[in-house]
Amino acid sequence: MIPVTRNGLLLIGVLFHLVYLMSIFDIYFRSPLVHGMTPHKIELPPPAKRLVLFVADGLRADKIYEPHYNETLDRTEELAPYLLNKLRTEGSWGVSHTRVPTESRPGHVAAIAGFYEDVSAVTKGWKMNPVEFDSVFNESRHTWSFGSPDILPMFAEGASDRSRVDTFMYPPEFEDFSGNGDRLDTWVFDEATRFFANASQPGSKLSAMMHEDQIVFFFHLLGIDSNGHGFKPYSEEYLGNIRYVDRGVQHLVEQFESYYGNDGKTAYVFTSDHGMNDRGAHGDGHPDNTRTPLIVWGAGVAKTAPASSGEIAPGHDAFSNGWNLGQYERKDVNQADIAPLMASLIGINFPLNSV
Questions:
Q1: Torsion, CA 172, CA 110, CA 252, CA 344, rounded to 10
Q2: DSSP assignment letter at 291
Q3: What is the C-alpha separation between 284 and 267, in angstroms, rounded?
Q4: Per-residue pLDDT for 27 more than 90?
Q5: Contact 111, 271 (CB under 8 A)
Q6: pLDDT for 302-349, tens place per residue?
Q7: 333: β partners
Q8: What are phi and psi of 297, to 5 degrees?
Q9: What is the phi-psi region of residue 134: left when phi exceeds 0, alpha when psi lies from -120 to 50, beta otherwise?
């Protein structure tokens, strides 16, 4: 019998555990995505020529829907009066239910690509594509995206035609949780204004592209998430950022309608990638992290018909009590349902791996 020294036994133990660990990743952490499938889309004429997607990063559903008591003004107010007016008069709304992990990357992948986070991402990091996947942006004729360098590249670099997706990003050093995150959203809104100014130039190539069909505009608004991490979601910074985003979205919608002459061919989707718990964190399956808002209006979107006076519309439960929205039907969805909704509105192929 060959004697085994202490160091030899230690080496065997290390090698065993390395092989054991590698076998787990080899068996379980393989991409489940299938490529080369036949694309499909709804064959009906699309109601919209263009789609505008707003993602308010880190916004939990109750904080935008419920009335807020303003101690300074000694009154109860709505934090997002413009968006809630769209909910009541022009579109449909509900709660988008996310899945664990409730983080930015898997949330955006679910909403824009239509499938839930690939477990193989565990070994590759979350900012760039661990595997190739299709998305609404990739299927569009062209997409213009504005926002964070942590989010935008994963959809641009993974596009089958990189020139199909344009990105406008602020520098990474802008993402400083020690300060007020409003400035991140200010950059996006200001960049969008400059974008429209360029598109309004006579003979602009950009203008010609913007008047084609099956195009997408994506605005990633990171300020709410930053303020939630820095100041907690019940802070004036977080709640004030919701007010600011509401005004910014209103101004952007007015720019779109003015540029396109109110042609009625623009569909709007407002949602979030994940929520946030009262400690200013997210990632797990707590309801504060998994329940996010969804407000959709514009071309192809049915208006929410209010219920009769005194009656509660379908879809409500204890969560939406106290929101003063009981007259309007609440239509909840799974987060991955948003991608085929957006694809249907502008008549493009469903992302190939959409569940």
A1: 150
A2: E
A3: 32
A4: no
A5: yes
A6: 998 899 988 999 999 999 999 999 999 999 999 999 999 999 999 999
A7: 96
A8: -155, 170
A9: beta
Residues 6+ apart with CB under 8 A from 207: 199, 200, 201
Give the pair of three-digit tokens for residue 42: 């709804």
Q: What is the 3-state secondary structure (H, E, C) of 90-127?
A: CEEEEEEECCCCCCHHHHHHHHHHCCCCCHHHHHCCCC
**Contacts (Cβ under 8 Å, ≥6 apart) of 47:** 265, 267, 299, 300, 345
Residue 110 CA, chain-centre distance (Å), reads 8
The pLDDT value given to residue 310: 86
Helices (H) then strands (E): counts for the chain: 12, 10
CA 280 to chain centre: 19
Residue 248 CB neighbours (<10 A): 24
Tokens of 314: 């379908």
Q: CA-CA distance, 197 to 78, in Å (whole number)?
A: 32
Q: Which amino acid is at 260?
A: Y
User: What residue has token string 């407000």?
Assistant: 295
| pLDDT band at residue 272 using 50, 70 and 90 as cut-offs | very high
User: Which pair of tokens denotes residue 344?
Assistant: 């249907």
Strands 91-97 and 165-169 come out as: unpaired
Distance CA 37, CA 22 (A): 30
The rounded distance, in Å, linking the Cα atoms of 259 and 211 is: 10
R_g of the chain computed on alpha carbons: 22
Q: What is the pLDDT of residues 48-61, one digit of tens each?
A: 999 999 999 999 99
The predicted-structure confidence for 189-205, as pLDDT tens digits, reads as follows: 999 999 999 999 988 89
Sheet strand arrangement including 165-169: 165-169, 142-147, 215-221, 50-56, 266-271, 291-298, 91-97, 333-334
pLDDT of residue 321: 94
What proportions of the chain, in percent to the nearest 5, are helix, strand and coil?
40, 15, 45
Question: What is the rounded distance in angstroms from the CA atom of residue 29 to the CA atom of residue 71?
Answer: 50
> 318 Cβ partners below 8 Å, 6+ apart?
none
